[in-house]
Amino acid sequence: MCGWTQSTTDDLNWTDGHGRTPSGNTGPSADHYGSTSGHYLYLEASSHYQKTAKLDSPVYPGGQYCLSAYFHMYGQQTGYLAFNIIQAGHKYTLKKYVGNHGNRWLHMRLSINSHAPTFQFEMEGHTGSGYHSDIAIDDLSVTHGHC
To answer: Gene3D superfamilies, per this entry (predicted)?
Structure first.
């Protein structure tokens, strides 16, 4: 997971997946390249309604960074996916996606300039009210400089 870790302050974990997710009419059928053998992380909503899963990045020194990720939010009951920053003991939401975004991978890029001595990124997914709310992420990366 390239230094990212499952949070201990949530009630669901991200799952390593490839190919189609177990539930029909929700989740991806392949990674963002279209490969059924490629891996991605996802939240399985079946029997996990209204649950939150978080991934925490390594700690970075202040400065300019680019956060990039592909995400897939498909299903009638999809919850939300938030990209947060944690610095000086406070959490700030940088970008939040809510609801069904169709059966496709979308690319998100954010330029961040943190003046704190250190900070972390947090990716927070929240399943919706039913099993049609799988959320997936792929190729999450952090690089120095603007996007």
So the answer is: 2.60.120.200
